[in-house]
Amino acid sequence: xxxxxxxxxxxxxxxxxxxxxxxxxxxxxxxxxxxxxxxxxxxxxxxxxxxxxxxxxxxxxxxxxxxxxxxxxxxxxxxxxxxxxxxxxxxxxxxxxxxxxxxxxxxxxxxxxxxxxxxxxxxxxxxxxxxxxxxxxxxxxxxxxxxxxxxxxxxxxxxxxxxxxxxxxxxxxxxxxxxxxxxxxxxxxxxxxxxxxxxxxxxxxxxxxxxxxxxxxxxxxxxxxxxxxxxxxxxxxxxxxxxxxxxxxxxxxxxxxxxxxxxxxxxxxxxxxxxxx
Length: 277
Fold this sequence. Notes:
Strand order of the largest sheet: 1-2
Number of helices: 12
Shape: globular
Low-confidence stretches: 1-60, 219-225
């Protein structure tokens, strides 16, 4: 089957990583300043440095681990941090706030569950890539149960069953599992915080995404139509997820003496903890 490059690749990647725009440390479980009824399990959710810890020794101190991620383009990163900050307050937050008022909580929870279930293959294959067979089994069973009994994933019927809810995996974590270094720290405009390794990993996750995969293999759909579907799907997911987290970004930013450093350290610590799971 012939694989054609997508004309909408760059647009899709904007939405793939925009979810990290408003927070540098997406939690494994939902936390929100919204009313208690809004709290649900998290739906989400991401390069090579030959000089990163070349001796192979492990870091016993968290500060040393943070220092291992170089930030040689701090000037650029700080500029992008300000750009993304303005974009959050001027665009994403107003849209998500209005969406939250108009769309009832049960509907937003179902949308969140749907997209979380849709990303099941991404997590499943990354579990396999890391040889985490029990986690892969849990991901596969959850995907099958929620896709059937959960009406295509609109309901997460196994939310409270630990064996069906292993730690989430992505391709950036897979690269880290095989000791690929972080490379430099970088904040992408629109995309948000990342590292060179996680940026490469996000491309792998994009290819494993069922919607993107169908577009790559060109399943009897015009590129423009398929690309538009991708953009709409990611846009809805980002706005919907943000509607549960309004206030989190503001709280962390206001509590930090230097928001840039606070978000950088939070992002790196979060990624380190995920790889270590």
